[in-house]
Amino acid sequence: MKDVLIDWSLNQNLKYGSSNSEKVSLKVKEWTIAKGVKNWSFDASSPIILALFSNEEDNLNNILKAFGGFGNIIFGQIILNEEDVTYNFPGWERQIAYLASNQFQWNKLFSVRHNLIKTAKSVRPFLQAIGRNNTKVKIDIASLKNTGRNLNRAEFKARVIKLIKAFINETQTSRNLFIKEYETQINEFHERFAKNKFNFPGGEELAEVLIRKLNAEEENMIVNNNLLFYQSLQDRISSLENLVGDCICGCEPPKKRKKEFELNEMPFIIDEINSYLEDKIFLTRKQIRTTLKSCNNHNQIFSNELNQALAYKKINLSRTQVDQIIEEWVDLAEVQRIKFNMKQDFIAMQLLPDEMQLLLKNIRHEIEIYHKKLLDHQKFEDASVYHQELKDLEDKLIDFRDLIDDNISLIFEELQLTSLLKRRYSDLSLLERRIVKVIQKLVVVNKVLLLENPFYLLERSDKVKLAKWLKILAKKLSIIIIFSSKSNEEISLVASHLAVIENGLVVQQGKIGEISAKPLSLNLLKEMNKRGLNVFLGQWYPPTLSFYNKQIAIFPNLKNAPIIALKASDIIFSYRKPLFTFFSKVIKISGTIKEVNKINERQSLLTFKTFDDNLFEVLVYNYNNFKIGSKGWISIVKNTIYIFDSENKQLIGTW
User: Fold this and answer.
1) I want to staple 63 with a disulfide (CB 3.0 to 4.6 A). Which of 36, 302, 376, 429 is the partner?
2) What is the pLDDT of residues 46-65, one digit of tens each?
3) How far is residue 441's CA from residue 450's CA, in Å, rounded to a whole number?
4) Residue 350: predicted pLDDT
5) In whole numbers, what is the pLDDT of the chain averaged over residues?
6) Statement to judge: residues 293 and 330 lie in one domain
7) 547: which residues sit within 8 A by CB, 6+ positions away?
8) Which pLDDT score is estimated for 49?
9) Is the domain of 512 the same as that of 535?
10) d(CA 184, CA 6)
């Protein structure tokens, strides 16, 4: 079996191999989901591992669910390898695998390999992709056998197929121009109606949501019409079978060779064109499912927005009044759609037959050229070349079991876990069960893997092993992994990138090292410094913020006292009053040692009680004999104080 197997209809690999060296491109544009995140945008390319950190775990779960296709998306796009997959159905068709923390159903008495194969068999779009691949290959094999070694016949087939495809594409191009004109008109209509009828307080926001809902319905109608268009083309192309039989070009072939001139090639040409149209029909049906999901999504969002607007009196109209305006809007939009459909019917009844006549004329011309070559100058391909072409085609036929076995073997060999394949699920450890749960989502090739709390309940040593395996999977399979976690330990073990989400807003994202150097979230700073982070309310005399009588910042637009945070490692302890008392960039505080906690052989954490009874934690080296009750001083140098807004816990300055 070939290493590179691709279902072009889905732009999706069927098998892990050399084609997976190509990077996966993921773009999220102004993405907004309910109870998750607002206006999130980012670009990524494989192999990366992105961690999502938030002060609310539900936010992270909602984000992953919506990413995987299981939640409502209010606005925005997910672009995967230049394809919009925002509203694609969950699973393999979406090319994004989502693994929830409680999502796993296996027969514990069977081996890991048996369960993985059974899981793959349940992925219907994957099986359909294999079936489409094999159907196309069989058509090509039958066509090649019909052609034989006759190069004239091969050339004729290729030229007629090219003619028909050009006819299909030109017809679609003309139709697309008409559709674009309609979309422009309907958008202008929606904007005018919204401006005239939704000019009451709160109406503008509601109209925006309603326009998105109506646009989704327009798109669904257009792709449904596309399906009818391609199906009508199939019917018209099938009529070319009438060309089979007695020669229509008047070339009068010899009686002994009459059968060669009966155009028995036409059924194979029609099969190939039907296969070409089937690909377009498949993609259109996929678009229908996608747009239908988008319609349902926007219907629910609009319903929620309207109910909230009425419940909280954001608009000064009654439900009946709003319903009347919407009904009028929908009725007028329906008039526009009827006009569009009538014009489409005109194209189907008037223009298509004319274009078909032109196509038939061009095909007859190709028949004349072909028959002339058969009579005057026949060319034949070398037998070895012909048999090699036939063998290459036969090699492209996919056996499902072989394909899945290859994928399973490759993954487990890369992780050096082949010994697990023969073991029963009930005999696996918690760590082994966790990695097998991950692998089951990758047996059928996916490009993005979403993991919900993958390190949950694991010991530190097991977390290290799982992190190592996830890094190998991201690199060797060239995929993007996105996981949720509230633990800095887990994030630092495996993530290359981090997105920090506070109260539904992405406050910081980028490489781990850059974010660790200057966290913009108080919650993240606390998580990164579980031991030894000092947090205080500053001395607030609006708009001036002071700390131990030292003015450190001015915030003219701030209402409440900001939060001050200092790392224990940034505070200097000394028994004597610091000599650099004349420096304006140092805060000096006197007090006593209240507690000493030894961290390791080199360092200890002091609890230092200041003269005004505040407690500071200070990281020190164990070169001194620190005694409880001893007097001393702490020094805070400029550029070590973080200042956060007390309401949203986001960084607003430093000192």
Assistant:
1) 36
2) 899 999 998 787 789 899 99
3) 10
4) 64
5) 88
6) yes
7) 536, 538, 539, 564, 587, 636, 641, 655
8) 96
9) no
10) 36
Does 180 share its domain with 323?
yes
CA 392 to centroid of chain Cα atoms = 34
478 dihedral zone (left: phi>0; alpha: psi -120 to 50; beta): left
| Dihedral sign computed on CA atoms, order 245, 249, 255, 258 | negative
Distances (CA, A) of 263 to 149, 248, 257, 274, 565: 16, 10, 12, 18, 84
* Tokens coding 275: 């296969």
Q: Cα dihedral angle (216, 221, 225, 228), rounded to 10 degrees?
A: 110
Residue 136 lies in a domain: no
- Between CA 425 and CA 119 the distance in angstroms is 14
Cβ neighbourhood burial of 201 (10 Å; 0-12, 13-18, 19+) = exposed
Residue 132 counted as domain residue? no
The full length of the chain comes to 655
What is the spatial distance between Cα 448 and Cα 231, in angstroms, rounded to a whole number?
A: 34
Model confidence over 285-337: pLDDT tens digits?
Answer: 989 988 998 998 889 888 888 888 888 888 888 889 889 999 999 898 888 88
- Separation CA 355–CA 336 (nearest Å): 27
Amino acid at 519: P
Q: At what angle do helices 151-197 and 352-376 cross, to 10 degrees?
A: 170
Do the Cβ atoms of 42 and 28 come closer than 8 Å? yes
Query: Which tokens sit at 521?
Result: 């979230």
Can you tell me the distance from the alpha carbon of 378 to that of 516, in angstroms, rounded to the nearest whole number?
74
CB 262 within 8 A of CB 37: no
- The residue to which tokens 């913009």 are assigned: 520
Query: Up-side HSE of residue 243: CA atoms within 13 Å toward CB?
Result: 24
Same domain, 605 and 472: no
Between CA 171 and CA 461 the distance in angstroms is 62
pLDDT digits (tens, 9 = 90+) for 452-476: 999 998 999 999 999 999 999 999 9
* 463 token code pair: 């977390």
pLDDT in tens, 333-366: 888 888 887 777 766 666 667 788 888 889 999 9
**Are 600 and 502 found together in one domain?**
no
Q: Write the CB contacts of 82 (distance below 8 Å, at least 6 apart in sequence).
A: 25
Tell which residue, 161, 154, 143, 155, has the closest CA to residue 362.
161
> Count of CB atoms within 10 A of residue 230's CB?
20
Give residue 550's region: left, alpha or beta (phi > 0; psi -120 to 50). beta
| 518-548 pLDDT tens trace | 899 999 999 988 778 999 988 899 999 999 9
One domain for residues 356 and 411: no
